[in-house]
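Lecture 7 notes: from sequence to structure.

We start with a single chain of 564 residues. Read the sequence below before looking at the structure.
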Amino acid sequence: MALLFLLPALAFGQRVELKDIYPREIDGTGFSLSSDSKVKIDGTAGVFRDEWQGIVYYGWILNSDTREVAWHLLDQREMRDLRDVEEVIEYSYEVDLKKGNYELYFTGSPTNISGDNWDVDGFGDLMRQIFNSRSRRRFRSSMADELFIKVESNGLNEVNINDLINAKNKDAIISFTRMGEDEDEEKGFTLTGETKLKIYALGEGRRRENFDYVWIQDAATRKRVFEMDYRNTNYAGGANKNIVFNDEISLPAGSYVLRYSSDGSHSYREWNAMPPDDPEFYGVTVWAASASDKNKIVDYVEPKIAKPLVALTMVRDDELLSEGMKLSRDLEVRVLCLGEEASDRMVDYGWIINAETREKVWEMDDWGNDHAGGAEKNRMAEETIKLPAGDYIVYYVSDDSHSYRDWNAARPYEEDLWGISIWAVNERDMSAVSKFDPRGYTSKNVIAEITMVGNDESLRETFELEEETKVRVLGIGEGSDGDMYDYGYIRNMDTGRTVWEMRYRYSDHAGGARKNREFNETITLEKGRYRIYFESDGSHSYRRWNADPPSNPELWGISIVKGN
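Now the structure, written as tokens:
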């Protein structure tokens, strides 16, 4: 057994000890010192192979009141100077600690297998030196008895670690700690005046990605007023991806929602790399910065404007949802849409059309969006748009995989908002909006239409014009390689002549599969009787898609609308 650093035998009294820790486990205990004391720390450590990972055994002491590291085995100079260690390491130290409360931790933590990439900040030299030793021992269950950490002192008393955590959280206004995998927590609070808050948050992140983190939103505007990320955090100990925010922020009077979200790996008790130095506080805790600040914090009052005008959310697989909204005056609305991108195009997404003209006024596309957290394919579009008074229909469509409660990759941070939501920008505008069922909607501008066409159909509709009229023809059908398979045309019944026909060469992509084709033309028709036709083949039609549907699936067919 390699002897690292051994002190002369001294007389010490009470002690706390952690042992019998297996790979990928961590344990902790609390203790208090009734006065400034000299403590003896001894134990054993080591680095092993276990399955496909390296495992490093080490311990540390945390000041329970300040949450700062009071002593860490891997900070010791002697540890960093090791060469060619081939056995379990035995160590012994004497350390001066101030009166107060402390937490002792011991872990057999997983690390990366590569000697050149241990994912540890500050201990890389140590790790490479130990792991590059010739033995590279494999962990055996019998070794758990040999590996331990012990703290002794005459003024030491063991304390339940939960009591220490609860005491620290006693005055917190929000505390979500010991956060596990795939967890979401949120809580609202209202401030009666400008308030300083102290935020202590631990999470997981890298330079361009957040995995476990906290943010605060203005409840009225959904604007993020605070977000924990790589730029405003510090290293939290252990693996490089462990980050910590420990600072004060100031917020004006208003209502806010704090939310913490974690992904599917590296969390409390389930660390896939070296844990942070303060594992018990993994998550977020918020305190008032002062007594005067605390007096400005009251129970959450939800702003009326926080209630969405339209919410097609928590969307599951293979759904096509719609909701109508009537605007009695011009107004601004905020649109939030979460969806899925695959092969450089959206496959779960939303859009808005003018119900009268059938024109699309907004769509979530594959370029104007941001990462929504979790898997890279989770996308988010959020913007404010102006809508004139009128009738609108909001749509959302999903494909056959990766949806609410049935994710096939890491879920987005706000999974309950998967879909499309619309809010009024100003509270006074909420009364100007009412809902309607789009399935029973009839546009006064539509002259004739054949829509929602299924397989193997041959449909017709007749209309008459009292005078020469400019009309807009909207057709959505199927075509490829220069030919149309689901298509429409217009025939003048007085002359028997076809006056308009859907042709591939004049079509545009209609969203979804490339074979979805769209026509949107304005033409002039003479006075007379006309008939519109729509023909479909035996596959790929409304609600029977064999590939991704178009952006406006309910208009699959042909519509004649009064021209502008």
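Residues 161-169 form the longest helix (9 residues). Keep this in mind for problem set 3.
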